[in-house]
Structure formats: C-alpha cells, structure tokens
Amino acid sequence: MSKKNINVGVIGCGTVGSSFIKGFISKKEIIKKKTGIEIDIVKVFDRDKNKLRLFKNIAAESPDEIIYDKEIDIVVELIGGIDYAYEFVKKSIENKKSVVTANKALISKYGEEIFNLAKEKNVYIGLEASVAGAIPIIKSLKESFIGNKITKILGILNGTTNFILSEMFYKKIKFSEALNMAKKLGYAEANPELDISGFDTGHKILILSYISFGNLFSIDNINVEGIEKIEPVDITYADEFGYRVKLLGICKREGNNIEIRVHPTLLPKNHLLSLVEGVNNAVYVEGDLIGKALFYGEGAGGNAASSSVISDVVDISKKIVSKSYIEENFNSNEKISLKLFDEIETKYYFRFTAIDKPGVLAKISKILGDNNISISSVIQKKDNPEKAVPIIMLTHMAKEKNVKKAIEEINKLDDIKKETVMLRVEEFLF
Amino acid sequence: MSKKNINVGVIGCGTVGSSFIKGFISKKEIIKKKTGIEIDIVKVFDRDKNKLRLFKNIAAESPDEIIYDKEIDIVVELIGGIDYAYEFVKKSIENKKSVVTANKALISKYGEEIFNLAKEKNVYIGLEASVAGAIPIIKSLKESFIGNKITKILGILNGTTNFILSEMFYKKIKFSEALNMAKKLGYAEANPELDISGFDTGHKILILSYISFGNLFSIDNINVEGIEKIEPVDITYADEFGYRVKLLGICKREGNNIEIRVHPTLLPKNHLLSLVEGVNNAVYVEGDLIGKALFYGEGAGGNAASSSVISDVVDISKKIVSKSYIEENFNSNEKISLKLFDEIETKYYFRFTAIDKPGVLAKISKILGDNNISISSVIQKKDNPEKAVPIIMLTHMAKEKNVKKAIEEINKLDDIKKETVMLRVEEFLF
pLDDT of A51-78, one tens digit each? Predict the structure, then answer.
C-alpha cells in the first residue's frame, strides 16, 4: 500500500491564504471521495498573529516549524514579495517538500532555479494561482496544449489596470479619478505602482512564456509600459476608429525568435478580449493544433486564487502518492532568443498636437514616409480653441525603431505643440 | 527503473485519427523531452484500407490486433458511432488497456459502465476530445475546478448549428439556406440530423454534467430541441430586444436538483457567449470559488480534436509510468436528482400571430396572467399585409409547465392565426 495521506503547511494567511484554508477544509471530503487521498492542512504561519486567530489549532510559531516538519509534504507559499518567499520556497524544496505558490514576482525572477532545484529533489512546483486567478491557463499550456507549438499569447493579466481602463472608457474620466475609484472599491492597493506600471503584467507574461517556450527571460530585458499616461481623449479617439484600449501582456513566437512586451494596446472593439471588463482577466492563445482559444475569468480575489491553489495541491498530492517521480521540463532545448524591442513590427496609433495651418500634415507625413511608416487612416480634428488641433493617425505595419525615430523628428517641428502620443495596435480576426 | 515507454494503438483513421497520428509523430520528440516518456503509435486500424495508406508500416489487419496486443498500453478509439466503438472500448479495458476517445455518443450512453470497468481494471479513460474540440473543458472541470461546487454550465457545443445561426443572423437567410451553406463548406455532414436536432449538444452537456456532478443522466430524460424551426424573423426580433439566438446546452444545479436541457436560447447581445460565431464553441461555467469563467475555442476539425487526444495520451502515459493506480471518481455520493423539464423556470420570448384588432392583446395577456406569467415587454408590429400581425413579447421568470398551458390556450383563440413561437431566454450579467 502506498501513502494515501498528504500533509500541507501554509505560509501566509492573508486574503488568498485564509480563503484557501477555509475553502480547502470545506471541500476536503469531496476531494477525498474523488481522489481517494486524504489531504490535511496541518500547520499555518503568518507574521501577523491576528490573521491566525481563525486557525488557532494549526497555527505555527515560525515558518521553520513548517519548512522543517518531516510530516509535511507540500508547502503552500502565499506571502507574496520576493526575499522571504524565495528563502522559504528554497528551504522547503531542499527539505524535500513540494511547493505551491501564487507568487508571480518570485517565479518570474527565480522560476528556473526553483524548477531545477525541485527536479533535483524530486518534488513538484504548482504555480497556477500566479497568473490570472481562477483561469487554468498554466495547466492548459503545460498539459492540455502539450501537443501544440504555441505561437501567440495575449493576456489581460492585471485586474486593477483593466478596471481603471474600463472606468475611463465608460465614465469618460481621467486616469487619476479611475485609480481613486479602484482604491475606494478595494481593487487597487494603497501602493498600486506594480499594477499600473505594467510590471505585474510583465511578471505574468514572462511566466506564460516560460511555461510555453521553456525560456524564462528577465523583466529587465522586455519592454514594460503602464497605463499612467493614458488620457481619456485617446480612449475616445480609439473608440472612433473602432478600438478599445487594454493593457496587454504580449508574447509571440516566430521561428526561434520570441517577442515579449507589455503596453497599453488598441484592440478591435469586436474582439472577445475587448469585452473583458472590470477586474476580470483573459488570456488568448494561438497554437498550431488548437488554432485560436480564449480563457476568461476572475483574475483576482481570494476565492479565485484559492481555486487554483486547491487544484495544484490536489494534483501534486496525486503525484506524491504515486511512487515514481515524473519530471517536468518546459525547456525543449531549442535555442530561443528574445527579439529586441526596437525590432518588433506592429501597427501604431499617433496623436499629434499641431498648429492648424496648411502644410503641417504634409510635414508629418513626409517624416513618417522617410522612416518607412505608411499611414492607413487619419482624422484631423478642428475643435480645439487654442488653435493647436489633434491629428490622429493609424499606420500600417511599421518597425518600432523607425517609429521612435520618426516621432522624435516630428516632436521637433515648430508646428508641433505637445509631445506626440504613440500607442501600439494589435489587429487580428477571431 | 520503471517503464518509460508507452505503446499506443489507434482504431479509426478518419479526419481526427489521421490528424492525431500525424500531429503526434511530429511532436513525439518534444513530448519526450518534456515528460521523459517515449510514446509510440505502434498500430492503427481502419475498416477503410485507403485511409491506412499513409501509415502502411503500422497498419493493422483487424481491431483485434490492437485490442489483444499485450505490448499496447493505450487504445485511441476514433471511429465514432456507438455499437462497434462500445465493443472495442470494452474489450480494450478488459485487456487492461487505457482508452482515449472522442466519442460523445458513446460516453453519454455508457460512460458510467466504462469508467467503472476502467477502475476495476486499474486503467484510465481520456475523453477531452469528446466535448468542445480543443477546449480543455473536461480537464478544467475535473482537475482545475476540483475545489469548486459547480452551479452552472452553459455551452455552445455544436459548431454546425452555431455556424447556421450565425449565417441566419448576418445574412438574413432561412434555416434551409444556411444549412446548405454549411454543407457546401463541409461544416455539416450529409446527414446533419444529430447536429441540428440538438442531440449532439445533448450528449456533450450530459458529459459535462457527469464530470461535474457525478451523475450521468440519459438523453431520453432531458429536453432536447434543435434549431430546425428557427425563423429569420425571430432572430430579427430577438435582435431588436437586444438578444442573439444560440443553441445552448444548459446545466444548472440548485441544492441537489439538476436541470439539463438543450434548446435555442435568447442571450443578451453583449454577453461573451453571444459573440461566439461560426463553427466555434464556448463553455461558460459558474462555481463557488471561480465565480464566472468562459472557455472559447475551435469546436471541430481534426487538429483541434487531436490536440485534446494528444493531451489525454500524454496524461495517461504519465499515470501509467508512475507505479500506483490513482482512482478517479466523479460521483461524490450525493443524491442528485434531475428536475422535470416542466418544473424549470426561466424567461420566455413569444411571437404570437394575431388578427390586428382591439382586444387581442388583452385576451393574450389575461391567459398569461391567469397562468402566472408576467410580461416584461411587448412589441406589436403593424407591417403585415395579411392583417395578421406579429406580437412579440418577453416575460419575467415563469414556469415551463405554465407557459406550455398558456400557449396551448392562446393558440386556440380565434384571433390567433398561426402557432405561437416560444423560445427561452437566459439572462445573466458577466
């Protein structure tokens, strides 16, 4: 008879941690019935003793009580942040414990080291909750799509920024007002920098790229732009052209080149991704067998994340009770390289603010043409009282480096009265 | 050292079968790299010898050559239909082979027997490809959402009927014309009865309900309506009220009561499900932890299905090489009962065809009122040359049995000139 009971320790008892513990305890019997495995949460630690009040009978005095407990099979790390989490996860693995984590910052930085160490120690890592809350995107990419060559992943991966952009669109309000609304409703943290700067989305798209292509690139080497500079007027003009503005994590593979980037993006209004509102998340995937697929769901909140944590804990429990260790490699030994951001090609949206006099459009167009950028449509507005009018333009496919050079030249024109706004466009049919 | 190579036999080499074999062979090395397991397709059988031409070196003379081959670990059944498939699957399991199948008709009829036999013989069943093509809905319900109490599943599960309804909407054409279009494009079979009658959707929603709730109900005990009777005029009026018409498989749980039904359904236009066009599929799921989730993807075609077959083959291979058998139960021992269709409550759309004279609306309204049906909105059209005008009505929540009774009474009125059209409405916010 093999081992049929699994002990779990939890480090971190905040929103996700407490939801997980409560959720798991209430579903324990059903899970046992379905899998034949008895899984128990035997210890929980949090630095804030108040958070342990509900779980007194299993409260631990220190994380070490969990990490060094020989009876514990799985450590669930839900403290967030990098330094302590890294230490706890590493020590847990060294002590032959499998680890389940929701920590995208940790995995996007130390993922390779963590997975390698886990393989060395014959333990497992679960990270479903680290990306897109309840959406089973990690498992789908890793297992369901294992026969696919994945070519494209586009994700709305951060609920706070998506909420802000939805509010700005529907209520015609400024970024700062929408951010305050998000804070008031508890959708944004007191310090929302990581969200609005795009870095949280960056961590998540790096993880999805790692799972799909086997290479974990550094956040320092990809382009990350946030939504702080988005003005209501650009949301309105995008709408006029038939687009919504969304903060996307984008990952595309062409041959052995991968491009990964995070920035506000114009998306065709009728695309399913454009319809993802509020704090919800969605991930769009293309692969050679699946064609086009989309996953939509709640990206944040204790319950959504704890659904994914439970799933990981159960999966790993099944693996532990079976006797052989099944290794897991994302890396297919292909030499994959990251495309320089300046080399990417996409369509662009520009908003120039120019003196309303003849010849201005000609000057702008000439600079664009000289830089190999061709215009697909343009609207020149006539309603600005200060005589500086907005000229809005969409381009055909152009190279990032050429666009930057052209914008720099255009901004230097005497007729240009404000820094030009540039946004990138994703066009694709469903 | 445990066994690290797995042999697969394939019965059925049509569209999905040949896509699977080709796809698998081309991905074999990557799968080996990722899992450490060597998986080989060693035999393939089809009654039509022509279909085996491409695979001469592994062609079998009879299915028995696969079913009784002691070296084969997994049998992939892709012949479709029920009788032969049932025999092959059963014999394969009896010979201690795991089975992967895309056969929804088979599973929706014999699923319980097949899963019980598999458990008895310590082998596994993979059925991802049986519902919604490439969409990993089975795995998500079984594994990713294992911590959830699922309360609602709504699915566009049949590509043919969804294509026809999309065509009727966009091109303002009749059912028969759209069906011909589907046949011409290869989206409908020569005999599309199983699709357009709703029974294919019925098989699939029964499987999703089985995976989620542990009870496999019979297609004979659920309401199944197809799209044959949908007229363009109802699609137009639905549009005026803000709805799209979609063929849905619906499964809802309330307490230990489950309702399962298949019928054309009015869905709010801005709901993600309404935007699923052409041969695509989508499944919407609600659960206590996940909240609301949606999966979208290609529902048909050899590649989409073979992506799911590959995933099942790899998953089962991993389980086989690990030494312990992990049982799998969908049944949670709850006593779940199927709600009688007459007892369901939903909102309704009616199209009455009535003589255009004073008092008709009052008579209709009285009958509805007497049957506890309250009206939420009504449009009376004035543009019918034959003096019989359409009256279109939406109701608040009402009971199916009352609605049927009321319609019967209304149809008997002298002023009613045609059988009343009744469609059901699903209202829910995303």
Answer: 999 999 999 999 999 999 999 999 999 9
B304 to A311: CB separation less than 8 angstroms, yes or no: no
Identify all chain B residues contacting A270, using CB atoms and an 8 Å cutoff.
275
Q: What is the pLDDT of residue A384?
A: 59
**pLDDT band with cut points at 50, 70 and 90 for residue A430:** low
Q: What is the chain B residue with the closest CA to A303?
A: B289
Q: Does B151 touch chain A (CB under 8 A)?
A: no
pLDDT at B23 > cutoff 80: yes
Across chain A, mean pLDDT equals 94
Locate the chain B residue with the closest alpha carbon to A321.
B324
Claim to verify: residue B141 and residue B128 sit in the same structural domain: no
CA nearest to B23 within chain A: A147
CA distance B406 to chain A (A): 38
The pTM for the full model equals 0.96
Q: Give the CATH number, domain containing residue B227.
A: 3.30.360.10
Determine whether the interchain pair A31/B319 forms a contact, defined as Cβ–Cβ distance below 8 Å: no
Total structural domains within chain B: 3
A151 and A289 co-located in one domain:
yes
Residue A283 banded pLDDT, cuts 50, 70, 90: very high
Q: Does some domain include residue A360?
A: yes
What per-residue confidence (pLDDT) applies to A322? 87
**pLDDT score of A356:** 84
Q: Is A290's CB within 8 Å of B310's CB? A: no
- Does one domain contain both B145 and B287? yes
For the segment B379-401, the average pLDDT, to the nearest whole number, is 86
Catalytic residues of B, which ones?
A: 204
**ipTM score for this prediction:** 0.95
Inter-chain touch A290–B297, beta carbons under 8 Å: yes
What average pLDDT does range B324-350 have in this prediction? 89
Report if residue B333 sits inside a domain.
no
Q: Does residue A329 surpass a pLDDT of 90?
A: no
End residue of a domain, out of B263, B297, B331: B297
Closest Cα of chain A to B250: distance in Å? 19
Assign 3-class secondary structure to chain A: CCCCEEEEEEECCCHHHHHHHHHHHHHHHHHHHHHCCEEEEEEEECCCHHHHHHHHHHECCCCHHHHCCCCCCEEEECCCCCHHHHHHHHHHHHCCCEEEECCHHHHHHHHHHHHHHHHHCCCCEECHHHCCCCCCHHHHHHHHCCCCCEEEEEEECCHHHHHHHHHHHHHCCCHHHHHHHHHHCCCCCCCCHHHHCCHHHHHHHHHHHHHHHCCCCCHHHCEECCCCCCCHHHHHHHHHCCEEEEEEEEEEEECCEEEEEEEEEEEECCCHHHHCCCCEEEEEEEECCCEEEEEEEECCCHHHHHHHHHHHHHHHHHHHHCCCCCCCCCCCCCCCEECCHHHCEEEEEEEEEEECCCCHHHHHHHHHHHCCCCEEEEEECCCCCCCEEEEEEEECCEEHHHHHHHHHHHHCCCCEEEEEEEEEECCCCC
Confidence category of residue A4, pLDDT binned at 50, 70, 90: confident
Average pLDDT of chain B is 94
Query: The domain containing residue B25 runs over which residues?
Result: 5-133+302-321
Question: Chain B contact for A241, CB < 8 A?
Answer: no
For residue A307, the chain B residues in CB contact (below 8 A) are 144-145, 147-148, 287, 289-290
A38, A167: one domain: no
- Determine whether the interchain pair B322/A319 forms a contact, defined as Cβ–Cβ distance below 8 Å: yes
Q: Looking at the complex, does the CB of residue A41 fall below 8 Å from at least one CB of chain B? A: no
| The predicted structure's pLDDT at residue A2 | 56
Q: What is the pLDDT of residue B418?
A: 94
**Contact residues on chain B for A35, CB-CB shorter than 8 A:** 146, 326-329
Residue A332 lies in a domain: no
Q: What is the pLDDT of residue B334?
A: 77
